[in-house]
Amino acid sequence: MITYDRLFIGGSWVKPSDPELLDIASPHDRSVVGRAAQARPADVDRAVGAARASFEAGAWRLTPPAERIALLRRFNALREQNAENIARLISLENGSAAWFTRAGQPGLTRQANAYLKAAEEFPWEETLASSDPASPVRSVVRREAVGVVAAVIPWNSPFSSATAKILPALLVGNCVVLKVSPENSLSMGFLAELLEGLGLHEGVVSVLPADRETSEYLISHREVDKIAFTGSTRAGRRIAAIAGEQLKRVSLELGGKSAAIILPDADIEKAVAGLKFGSLLNNGESCIAQTRILAPRGRYEEVVTALADMVRSLKVGDPNDPDTFIGPMIRPDQQERVRDYIRLGIEEGARLVVGGLQVPAGLEQGNYVTPTVFADVDNSMRVAREEIFGPVLVVIAYDDEDDAVRIANDSEYGLSGGVWSADEEHALAIARRIRTGTVTVNGASVAFDGPFGGFKASGIGREYGAVGLGTYTEYKTITV
């Protein structure tokens, strides 16, 4: 049993305004595995007030970039030293399979290193020569911290989402209030312990597990200068409305319904082996999952059969079992949501190839669903248009490459996608035509130096690397 009966506010562990602790349930068997304090509006006021006072005092904001970089490089080293514990905690509270939480740890290192490299090379101040010979004005252009950042993250990949926001925000000199999901109180409590070990200035960072109502209170707080949010498109629209009303800076990384285009010359075996990870990572609870599989009509049944065989081979079960590929959904309501979509796919007339409504035998005590593949899916069906956030794949036939691109782009979302082909350059040409923020060719891994984010309803702004660092800055021009 893990217990956090204090909240990490402004660099210190303090008593919460509400002493009642929330039970944290295991998605595997619904037993209580931890208890944690939850923030209320009074705690938000305290965290935001501490952040505002710290930012205005300027101790962290005016710290030389090289010193901020060195401190956050130490944080990255601390996180690496505790990678196994982090992976264990996420599996415990999220139900994410151990292979996924462990494999994600090197990714966190690459993510952090990309931010640190960008900060070392960042143009904190530049001098521009006048373009008008008759007016020899010299301009000094500075990049400065925005102020107090409210970073709000979802439950599905807590450490990655948290560090994607707090690292760039702190590297630039902002103060951060990180709002995390109640389900992640254990792993995010441990994140707070790592941050405590850095000895940051008072008020620079707070970590608050809290419900949606308290989250909205934070987002609406008049002393918050910028909102950085990852979550559903529905919630993103609400946040954008609040930000617009108050003229806050905002960046939103939202939902997705990404397409993987398998071109006629692709190696089907390799494509399906890659989609095992690209489509079903983290139990399918991933915004970047490529869950619409677009297959050429001439090879359609070959693709369907290969996908079905792959999905049938996956072990579903205890996330701590090293042989488990897919664990449980995080909560009972998420389990039912996914099963409702499976039911909907059947009602819409899709062909159920593998999976279905039954809970895997022997796993009835947990939040489990059976991984499912639908064939004969039309892109107008709800199972092809709405984000399911579970291990459900739909296979859609296309006539030619133009048709494949049309179907891929026929979505309100545009977060991720993939192209599979024996001809890499041709795949690249197709990738350029897809209206989405990130496209992988033949299963390439994420590049953390490049910007990550979405088109259309998948968000506003970008994370990772130099571009992600810049979203936490304001421009200031001084003319001399």
Explain this structure.
By secondary structure, this protein is of the alpha/beta class. It has two domains: about 1-255 and about 455-480, 3-Layer(aba) Sandwich (Aldehyde Dehydrogenase, Chain A, domain 1), CATH 3.40.605; about 260-450, Aldehyde Dehydrogenase, Chain A, domain 2, CATH 3.40.309. The chain is about 40% helix and about 20% strand. The chain has 15 helices and 21 strands. The protein has a seven-stranded mixed β-sheet, with helices on both faces. Strands 10-9-8-11-12-20 form a six-stranded mixed β-sheet, sandwiched between helices. A hairpin with a 2-residue loop joins strand 2 and strand 3. It is globular. The mean pLDDT is about 95.
- DSSP E strands, number: 21
The name of the CATH superfamily of the largest domain reads Aldehyde Dehydrogenase, Chain A, domain 1
> How many individual domains?
2
- β-strand percent reads 15-25%
Strand order of the largest sheet: 15-16-17-14-13-18-19
* CATH fold topology of the largest domain: Aldehyde Dehydrogenase, Chain A, domain 1
Number of alpha- plus pi-helical segments: 15
As a whole number of angstroms, the C-alpha radius of gyration is: 23 Å
Helix and strand composition category: alpha/beta
What's the N-to-C terminus distance?
A: 62 Å
Low-confidence residue ranges: none
Calculate the mean pLDDT score and round it. Answer: 97
Q: What coarse outline follows from CA principal-axis ratios?
A: globular
- CATH top level class name of the largest domain: Alpha Beta
The appropriate CATH architecture of the largest domain is 3-Layer(aba) Sandwich
Largest sheet: 7 strands, mixed
Q: Portion of residues in helices?
A: 25-40%
